[in-house]
Specification:
Blueprint: H1 2-20, H2 22-37, E1 42-46, H3 52-57, E2 67-70, H4 87-93, H5 99-104, E3 114-118, H6 125-136, E4 140-145, H7 163-166, E5 169-172, E6 180-182, E7 191-193, H8 195-216, H9 235-250
Length: 253
Amino acid sequence: MLAKQWLENARSVMDNIENTQMDNIRKAAEAMADTIEAGRWVHTFGCGHATIPVEEMYPRIGGFVGFHPMVELPLTFFTRIVGEMGVHQFVFLERVEGYGVEIMKGYNFDPRDCMWIFSHTGINNVNIDVALEAKKRGMKLIVFGSASNAKGKTTRHSSGKTIFDIADIVVDSCAPIEDASVPLKNHKDKVGPVSTLAFVTCVWMTITTVAEILADRGVKLYIHPSHNVPGDTTAKERLDEALAEYKKRIANV
């Protein structure tokens, strides 16, 4: 039964993350905690389906202020499939060297910031552009992706480096490099990708660790509460407080 096979594959990826990546997740979380405690930003970036973990972490219930999503519409909104902003254009754009340099011109950064990038294979140019620009600005670069499985893949960037080569801290998503994980009879290509599940797993393992570190330091977190719980009379007040804090901090970005 292919549904169970996918579930077993997904569990295996999550088990591998737990068994091999806890130290790296802790290192990433400590860097992010230092940034957030300083009143600065963990900037988050990805292309294609690698924007899903960016959108998952903030803003959403259980997330907290300190993470700044950088979502470039032409690199994520390709659900029309063909026509305007379709898949063909997206595949082209994520490989255009220099595009990431232009993206970075639109923001103000600080050396106390972190740049957190999601890239499954680590070889495409926009992500590498953003990574190199972040390093030029003195930011700590944290990269999540299928690092060990991507070894040996040739970068598309003129620097000769993959994004994993540039990173200060790497967390391996442990997803297979081909992403899809379930073979299908009479077909060459597999179905059932697992990279998104791997990314989201790593995201919440990291962010809960960041929260734990900051709480232990006595830092107040501005958490987005659920506003759908009957009887919670202060949820809107806490949400407004979190959004006000975000608005105050984002003014200089």
